[in-house]
């Protein structure tokens, strides 16, 4: 299981939790696990989020490994021009 820290706006979709745990070995499994455990997160995740692992933002690699030893944050993807 990996612990995922969420931004405060997502607490409404996780029963008020700002940290959740999912079974995952990589970023792709982590995102799929979040949707399985918290289906209301799907629109947000599908719209685009970033994942930070130990302070490093994983921009596009769904195969980036994660483990229970990592500090993981789900981050709102900023859009602009």
TrEMBL record:
Highest taxon of the lineage: Bacteria
CDD domains: Ubl_MoaD_like
Gene3D superfamilies linked: 3.10.20.30
InterPro entries, per the entry: Beta-grasp_dom_sf, Mopterin_synth/thiamin_S_b, ThiS/MoaD-like
Pfam families on file: ThiS (PF02597)
Name of the molecule in the record: MoaD/ThiS family protein
Lineage: Bacteria, Pseudomonadati, Pseudomonadota, Alphaproteobacteria, Rhodospirillales
